[in-house]
Design goal:
Layout lengths: L3 H17 L5 H22 L3 H24 L5 H26 L6 H24 L7 E3 L3 H17 L8 H15 L4 E3 L12 H16 L1 H25 L22
Antiparallel strand pairs: 1-2
Helix pairs in contact: 2-3, 2-4, 3-4, 3-6, 4-5, 4-6, 5-7, 6-7, 6-9, 8-9
C-alpha cells in the first residue's frame, strides 16, 4: 500500500509533466523539411555531376523556405522550434549546398583558391544567418541587413544553370565563379540594405496594370528561364549597393537598424 500523501504527490507530478509536454507544429515544419530536402538534393546532384538539377534544387528550396514562415503566420503555428529549424535548414540549403555546388562544378580545378572561395561563401552564410537571428527585433522590416542568403544562393545557382544551358563547362569559368562566390558571400555580411519586399501584401488590391505587368514578366521569363533568372538576381545582388550610395548621397541614414540595443555583446553587430 502507498501512503495517501505519496499518492497525491505522484498524481500532481504527473499532471505537471503532462502540462509541460509540448508538441511540434506539423504544417510549417513540413515546408521547412521540404526546403532542407531541396538543399540536400542539390548537394547529391552536384556530387553526381547533375549540376542543372542541383541548381533547380536550390530554387525549390527557396520557394519552400519562403512559404514556411507565411504558413506558420497564417495558421498561427509560430514556435521557437520552427525558427531554429528554419535557420538550420537555411544553412544547409543556402550556405553549404551552393558552396559545394560551386566547388565541385568549377572551383576544384583552382586548388587551394577554389576551396578557400567555397569556404568563404559557406562561412559568410553561417555568419549572415547568425546575425539575422540576433538582429531580428531591431531591423527595419522593409530591408535586409546584407544580401539575404537565399538570394546569394540563387546568384551561384543561376550562374551554374545559365552556363550549363549554354553548354559551358565549369572549369572554363572557374575564375568568374571564384569572383561570384566571394562577392555573394561577402555581400551577405555587409551592412548594405537590400529591399525585403515584406511590405508587399497579396491581400491588398492593386491597379489592373500590375496584373498585366506580372503576366508580362512571366512571359519574359519563359523566353529563356536560366538567363532571365540570372539577370534578375544579378540586378538584385547589386541593388543594395545602389540603395546605399543613393542614401549616402542624399544624406540619409544607411543603416537598417531601426531600434538601438543596450546589449554589449550585440552592439558590434549593428554597426
Amino acid at each position: 500500500m502507498h501512503d495517501s500523501n505519496e499518492t497525491d504527490f505522484t498524481e500532481d507530478d504527473a499532471m505537471v509533466v503532462k502540462k509541460r509536454r509540448k508538441g511540434i507544429y506539423i504544417l510549417p515544419n513540413l515546408f521547412t523539411l521540404a526546403a532542407l530536402f531541396g538543399g540536400f538534393y542539390a548537394i547529391v546532384m552536384a556530387i553526381n555531376g547533375r549540376f542543372d538539377m542541383a541548381a533547380w534544387g536550390i530554387f525549390c528550396a527557396m520557394v519552400l523556405d519562403s512559404l514556411d514562415g507565411r504558413v506558420a503566420r497564417m495558421t498561427n503555428t509560430q514556435s521557437a522550434f520552427g525558427e531554429q529549424m528554419d535557420s538550420l535548414s537555411d544553412m544547409v540549403s543556402f550556405g553549404a549546398a551552393p558552396a559545394i555546388i560551386a566547388y565541385v562544378w568549377a572551383l576544384k580545378g583552382l586548388g587551394r583558391w577554389g576551396w578557400i572561395a567555397a569556404f568563404v561563401y559557406c562561412a559568410c552564410g553561417a555568419l549572415r544567418l547568425a546575425r539575422f537571428n540576433v538582429n531580428t527585433g531591431v531591423i527595419d522590416k522593409s530591408y535586409f541587413q546584407g544580401l539575404p542568403s537565399p538570394a546569394a544562393a540563387a546568384l551561384v545557382a543561376s550562374f551554374v544553370l545559365v552556363m550549363t544551358d549554354l553548354g559551358i563547362k565549369g572549369p572554363s569559368v572557374a575564375w568568374p565563379m571564384f569572383g561570384l562566390a566571394l562577392y555573394s558571400g561577402l555581400s551577405m555580411v555587409t551592412n548594405v540594405p537590400f529591399y525585403s519586399f515584406k511590405d508587399f501584401h497579396v491581400k491588398k488590391s492593386v491597379p489592373f496594370v500590375v496584373i498585366v505587368l506580372i503576366a508580362l514578366g512571366i512571359a519574359i521569363i519563359n523566353i529563356d528561364p536560366p538567363t532571365v533568372i540570372f539577370g534578375l538576381f544579378v540586378l538584385y545582388g547589386f541593388s543594395g549597393y545602389f540603395i546605399y550610395v543613393w542614401r549616402k548621397a542624399k544624406g540619409q541614414q544607411t543603416s537598417v537598424i531601426s531600434i538601438s540595443t543596450e546589449e554589449p555583446d550585440e552592439r558590434g553587430l549593428h554597426k
